[in-house]
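My main concern about presentation is that the manuscript never shows what a single data entry looks like. For the editor and my fellow referees, an illustration may be useful. For illustration, here is how one protein appears when written out as sequence plus C-alpha cells:

***
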Amino acid sequence: MRSLELGGGAPQLEFVHPKYPELFGRRTVPTLRELDKPVDLAFVMVGPNRVGQILEDAAAAGIRNAVTLAAGYTEAGEEGRELQDALRRQAEDLDITLMGPNTIGFINATLGIAPWAVASHRAPIPGAVSAVFESGSMCRAAYEYTQAHAIGISHWVSLGNSAVMNTLDVLEYLIDEPSTRSIALFLETVRDPERFIPLAHRALAADKPVVVYKAGRSEEGMRAAMAHTGAMATNDAVVDSAFRQAGIVRVESLEELVATAGLLGHTRRRPVGRRMGVVTSSGGGCNVIADLAHREGLSLPPWSEPIVADLQVHLPPFAHTLNPLDTTGFGHARARPRPTKAEDDLMEIAVREPGIDFMFTMMTPLPSERPADPAFIESRMAIIGDIVKASPVPVFLASNTNLDVTDYARKLLHDNDLHLLPGVDLALRSIGYMLTWCDRRTSILDRGPISERIDPPGVVGPAGTWDEWEGRQLLQHGRIPVVPARLVTTAEDAVAAAAELGDTVVLKVCSADIPHKSDVGGVALGLSGAAEVADGYRRVTANAAVRVPGASVRGVLVSPMRPAAPELLVGVTVDPTFGPVLTVAFGGIWVETLKDSSLRVLPVSRPEIRDMLFELKGITMLTGGRGAAAADLDAVIDAINDIAAAAVSLGPDLVAFEVNPLRVGAAGPEALDVLIVTEER
C-alpha cells in the first residue's frame, strides 16, 4: 500500500479477500469474479496452493496480467518444479501474462505505478535507468541504492522464478520503451543465448547500453579435459566472451551495476577517447585519481600552454599546474567575484583543453539540509550546471566517498540537470565501463553481419577420440595448411619416409587411445640418419605399449622437423549454454606457462579473430617484437577461421577440436598436431 501510494499513478485499487469485508479502510469483494469494474492487473498475495484458483477467477473477470508473490516453486525442489510447470501451463491456457512466482513485483516510475511488495520510504525518482533482476532481495537492495544516490529510474523489475515472463521478454520491451536510456540486468543464469545476443545487438543499435552483473563465477562445467582448450574455456570465461561479443558491459558488484547504469542513463554526451582532465581541491585526491585512472586505462595528458597560462591566474605561485590539478587550500580562502569555489572556476577553464576527451572532478560535499541562507549553494549549483552544459567535452562529477545523497542535495542536482557519481572509486570504475561500452559498440556496429559458411565435414571419423591421422584428413579437407606426414608401421618404412621428407624429422605415435603423446614418451624429436630414425620408431612404439597397455596403435607419423617459430593453440569446445566456443592462445610449451588466451562464441568474423589475437599478451611474438620478422596475420586469421569452420562442420557430434600447435613461420601458418573428440553415440 505504501509503495502504491508513493508511486501515485494507480489511484483505482480494488481489494479482494474471502474473509475480511474491509482492508486498509476500503471494502473488499470475496473473489475477483465479483469485481464490478474492469481491472488491469491482479497482484496475488496468497500461498502456492491457492494461486491456481485465483488465476481462474482472474481469467473469468477478464484480467490478463498478474504478479504472483508466492514462493514454494522451483526453488523448493522437484515437487515445486512440477507445481511451477503446472502454473505456467495454466497461465498460458488462460492467456494471462504472469510475472513470478516468487517475485516482489515491479516499479514503473515513468507512470508512477508501483506494485512492489516491500517497504518504500520515498516516491520513485523518475529517470532513464531500467533494471531487471532475477533475485528479489538484490532487486530491492539495488533500488534502495538508486534512491540513496539520486539515480532516476524508468522501470525496476523483479522477475522471481520467471514461469511465464522472463528477463529477455522485459529486455525486449525496454529496448523499445522511450524513457529508458540504459538497462541493468542481474542474472543468475543466461537463458536462451540464441535470443539473448540478438537482443543485445538490438540494444546497441538503439543506443541503449546494457550493463550486467552475472552472479556466480565458478569453474564448474569445465569441458573436454583431454584438451588444453577445455581448461581455458570455463563456463565463466565463456560468459565473459559472450557478453563482450554482444556489446554488454559486465560489472563486478551491485554497486558497480547501479552506478554504471546510472552514468550511462544520465549521460547524453559520451567521450570519444580516454584522455581525462581532472580538477579537484584535494592534493591527496589527485594521487588517488591518478592511481584509479591507471587502473581503468585512462590517460592524464598535460595541459597545453594557453590553458596553463589561464589556470595560473587563479593559482598561488607555489601551485603546480599538473593534470590532475590541485586547486590548493589557497583557492578556498580567496575571495571570488561570484558564488563559486576554486574547483568550479578552474574547471571552467580546463574544459577548454583541446587535448582531453572529458573532464572529471570530485565535488566538495553538498549540504544535507537547506541552509538558512541557501543563496550561495543554490547559485553555485546553477553555475556548475551552466559550466557542464557549455563545456566542449563531457563533464563527470563525483562525491569524494560513497555517501548517500539527501533530499535537499538531490533537489540541487535535479534542478540543474547534474549527475553525481557515488565516490571516486566507483566513479572512475563506471567511467571505465562506459568507455569500454563505447569502444565495443563502435566495433560491433561497424562489422555488420557475419556471413557464416559451414561445409559438411567430408570426412567420416570415429565416435570418441580421433587419432591424429584421421584428424589430419579433416584439416586437409578444410584447406587448413598441415605439416607433411607419412603414416608408417615399421622401422624400415620410417627410415624411408624420413629420407623422403628431409634431413631431420619428428616421430609421433598415432593412436586414438593416446591423445597426449608426449606424456607417455610417444614423441621423438630432431632425428636424423637411418639409425636414429629406426631407434626412434622402436622407442616411441615401446613406450606406448608399456605406458598405455592395450592401446590400439594405427602406426607412427613421420614429419619434417620445423625450426623454432611462434606457436598458437586454436581450439573449439562446446559450452552447454552458448554452443561452440573458439579459443586462441599461445601454444606448444607456452600453454601452461603463459595462460594467455582469448575466447569467442562462434560464429565470429575475421575482424573479431584479429581482435582475439591482439588481446593476447604475447602478440608481439607475431607482430615483429624485438627485431623478429612480423607474421602474415591475414594468413593466420584465415587459418583460425578455417579451423573453426572445420570444427563446427562436425555439428552436434563435436566435443573438442584442437590444433596445438599452429606454427606461425615465415612461410605462413601450419598445423603441427590436431586432436578431435566427438560424441560417443
Residues 66 and 98 are 5 Å apart (CA to CA). The chain is about 40% helix and 20% strand.
